[in-house]
């Protein structure tokens, strides 16, 4: 590992780079977890919207409850360092989620 600080991506806005440069190590780790979760959320929104616009209806998995729409997908959310499966789908402008179970069944 180098003694020099990493070079920020050129695509990152200056105000974000400046804020990160002033942050503590703990805040940087928190920001990294938040940024990863936010990126996953935005990608998931895009997939849900693309699926809704495609007009295709996926097959209904055997474990899908009756109150979960056919267009729902399974996503993973991390809460307090634990990972959980959730059903997720779009209703109008809102994205809806319903708990499915832990990623690791021993949890």
Written overview of the protein:
The protein is α+β, with helices and mostly antiparallel strands and 107 residues long. The protein has one domain. The chain is 36% helix and 24% strand. It is built from 2 helices and 3 strands, in the order H-H-E-E-E. A 3-stranded antiparallel β-sheet has the order 1-2-3. The protein is elongated. The two termini are 35 Å apart. About 6% of the residues have low confidence.
Summarize the structure.
With 107 residues, the chain is α+β, with helices and mostly antiparallel strands. It has helices at 14-22, 25-54, and strands at residues 73-79, 82-91, 94-102.
- Radius of gyration, rounded? 18 Å
The percent of residues in helical segments reads 25-40%
Order of secondary-structure elements: HHEEE
Widest beta sheet: strand line-up: 1-2-3
Counted by DSSP, the helix tally is 2
What descriptive keywords fit this protein?
107 residues; alpha+beta; elongated; 3 strands
Topology:
Elements: H1 14-22, H2 25-54, E1 73-79, E2 82-91, E3 94-102
Antiparallel strand pairs: 1-2, 2-3
